[in-house]
Amino acid sequence: MIVFKYIWYYFFWLVVKVGLAFYFKRIKIAGLENVPKNAPVIFGANHENAFMDALIITTRLTRFSHYLVRADVFKNALVKTLFSWFNMLPVYRIRDGFGSIKGNQEIFQSCYNALAKGRALIMFPEGKHDIRRISRELTKGISRIALGAVNSENAPKELYVVPVGLNYTDHKLFRSSVHVVFGEAIKVEKATYDARSLDTLRNEINEGLINCTIGLQEAYYDQLDTLVFKTEGGYDLSDPKPINTRTNNLLKCYIAKNNDGLDLAIEEFDEILKNLGVKNWESIKDLNTSYTFLRLLLLLPVYLFGLIHNLIPMILIESLIALKVEDKVFTASIKFSVGLFLFPLFWFLEAAYFNTYNPSIYLYVIYWCSLPFSLLIVNYYHKTVRLYWAKRKLEKNPEMAASLNGCLDYIDEFKAKCS
């Protein structure tokens, strides 16, 4: 039974790894050398993108891993069985009812057993997901499991906690990038299982996670997001420290000054970007509309080929998200998980139909390979069209352009005073 479970686990591990390599434009890894190779590890990660976070971490590791998932998703019997095959364990929270929290004792024991066997445990100690890049206080769950494991009867010889930061260029878009930062390993020493020890370990993990993630202050999130990410570019998200230093300096300057005018500039700037349909000024700042139009014209035949072959699954996925997904944090997760099976299914059916014309083996292989490539072209084309029309709209509206430049001048003046 355990052999079958390993085969099942690593088969889907490979499928998901290949799928993620296609879904993301780039997955950049930093600090993987910090992960101990011959000892059990608890990975504590930030949680900005639903179950995409767990899939990305898992496929960067080769070890057999277990996961703690909020208990409310286990209510369906079929889902519960499926999740169990992927080593997912339910963790109960106060919001699930005080009576249900008792079930955590059994789950924690399962975690201790897994760690005693040298396996990995992936947790999201912030206790909830949030698509915003904000700093959050950790729950005590991760320190309870870590200290509980080293104090259990079958305690491992060594146990480490590795903070993991997942920093996305865009949480919802296909072909965005993600930077995965593995922080320095924290060795869990055996200590008295009390509130003081739990808080000490939690604070140490929290400090490590801060160094791996981009954490804007929640109370000033909109202002900092605009000042740093909507008006600037070129940041290396695999090194969050300079970004956090930058945002902290801007925040201190913002709090120290009377910023009624800046707030108005930021609000107007955000409204203009929303009106243009773009998220970042840098994406259209230097866009040459003539060259972009020529590029779109040349790619049009390839785009039409891709659109014809991918339109149905694209519509199905977007309709599913529009009708069923209330929490936008799940957007990428649904896109990826459904698309991982739906697009290959349609490509298989299209290739089977094409084969009825008895093409040569070479032509058949070329056709097969062109299908996933055409999806990339469709996505690139849609993105480029959106940026093209945004810049054209700005060029045709001098009043809007003047307003945008006025906002940028005010924001740049504020930044200059803060440097």
Q: Helical region count? A: 14
Terminal CA distance reads: 62 Å
Instruction: Give the overall shape, derived from the CA principal axes.
Output: flat
Low-confidence stretches: none
CA gyration radius, whole angstroms: 24 Å
Strand content: 5-15%
CATH fold-level topology of the largest domain:
Glycerol-3-phosphate (1)-acyltransferase
- What level of helicity do the residues show? 55-70%
Task: Give the domain tally.
Answer: 2
Q: What is the H/E order?
A: HEEHEHEHEHEEEHHHHHHHHH
CATH class of the largest domain: Alpha Beta
Decide which structural class fits the backbone.
alpha/beta
Mean of all residue-level pLDDT scores: 92
Oligomer: single chain
Return the CATH architecture of the largest domain: 3-Layer(aba) Sandwich
Largest sheet: 8 strands, mixed
CATH superfamily of the largest domain: Glycerol-3-phosphate (1)-acyltransferase
Total strands: the figure is 8
Summed up:
The chain is α/β, with parallel strands linked by helices. It contains 14 helices and eight strands. Strands 1, 2, 3, 4, 5, 6, 7 and 8 form an eight-stranded mixed beta sheet that branches.
